[in-house]
Specification:
2 copies of one chain form a homodimer. Chain A is built from 8 helices and 5 strands; from the N terminus they run αααβααβαβαβαβ. Chain A is of the alpha+beta class. The first copy, chain A, has one domain: 3-Layer(aba) Sandwich (NADH Oxidase), CATH 3.40.109.10. In chain A, helix 2 packs across helix 6 and helix 4 packs antiparallel against helix 7. Chain A starts with 5 loop residues before the first helix and ends with a strand. At the A-B interface, helix 1, helix 3, strand 1, helix 4 and helix 6 of A face helix 1, helix 3, strand 1, helix 4 and helix 6 of B.
Chain lengths: ~210, ~210
């Protein structure tokens, strides 16, 4: 039984506390070996039936980055029209993506057509394949933060348009667009909380049956 | 900028490597304060627009546990009929849930109707609320493993039947059934790999655009 020290447990809590969804990145490049260390988290992530359905596309070219950024801008403008008054002004002031600056960017997909794992565990809940991808992203997120890198998850995107622009295979489902790089600032409070959009709960209600 | 030591980074890798989906639990009770420490991970988890849509139901009563276990057994029997020959024999030999033994059990839901976060980030991808729940589960999973506890995620269940049996509100979506307790064994290899169901990849292919 591999055990972990109390000191490690405390540091892990600090890591979770200081992990952030980063939107403000320095443009400094990320060392490829360091990035690879973080990406190794995908190889250790849980997946339903060992299906490992995550598919990564690194967004490098000017054309692909521009297409993704334009996609975000269009959807962010649309989202703004859904708010009124103060909330609209606040939304307009938020920076919801670091896509213009982050040196490393990935579009993460789920291969729902994978035969790996032979469907085990996904019969009644095929969505668990996408949940496996999300699980891997979270391990990557923590591994990156532990190494001083920040990760920002952008969801204000039209998945269909992104798939067309990136020439993605038919049965892959878009799960997340990740920006990776060195964060400009560090905080133990989410930016949305700092800027007054929403508070975090300080207790977890649990029902009992 | 809060930084983490190289020693911590290595321990974090070990944690990810030794985290397991546990199906073999001891029946020893789990200290409530220890469990609470693990559950605190939910309060630190990322969520789209700070919506914090996770909803936990602790499954305690004999009636609720029996209903959940019967649900699993029925769906597991059905799943078996989808395999033939050697694969069927192997599937039949697998233990895919610790529901009969695990001292602590949760059904985890997503409240898709929550107004918390005012829909930010979920406009084009409402599924990100469920992904937030999955993110929190993964943080809980690591926090538990760091404290010697094991977590098993059961997905071989009929969500609709479970919702009826647990008398769950209409707009909550079932995400995961978690078994929690002290694991009987410890390994850095997934049980499905040890038993020959499926191998893990040892490299992560990445496309570029």
């Amino acid at each position: 039984m591999t055990t972990f020290s109390t000191a490690f447990q405390k540091d892990l809590t600090q890591l979770m506390k200081w992990r952030r969804d980063v939107r403000h990145f320095k443009t400094d490049p990320v060392d490829e070996a360091l990035l690879q260390e973080c990406l190794d988290a995908f190889l250790m992530a849980p997946s339903v039936g060992l299906s490992e359905p995550w598919r990564l596309i690194r967004i490098e070219s000017h054309a692909a980055r521009t297409a993704a950024l334009e996609n975000f801008k269009a959807e962010n403008d649309k989202a703004l029209t859904g708010y009124r008054g103060e909330k609209a002004a606040l939304y307009a002031s938020l920076k919801l993506s670091g896509m213009a600056e982050a040196p490393v960017q990935f579009a993460i997909y789920c291969d729902d057509g994978t035969t790996k794992g032979d469907g085990l565990g996904a019969g009644t809940m095929p969505e668990t394949r996408k949940y496996s991808v999300v699980s891997a992203i979270n391990l990557f997120w923590l591994a990156a933060r532990a190494r001083g890198l920040g990760v920002g998850w952008v969801s204000v995107l039209d998945p269909e348009r992104l798939g067309r622009d990136l020439d993605v295979e038919g049965d892959w489902t878009f799960v997340a667009y990740l920006c990776v790089g060195y964060p400009k600032t560090s905080s133990d409070h989410p930016e949305l909380e700092q800027l007054g959009w929403e508070d975090r709960r300080n207790a977890l209600p649990i029902l009992t049956r």
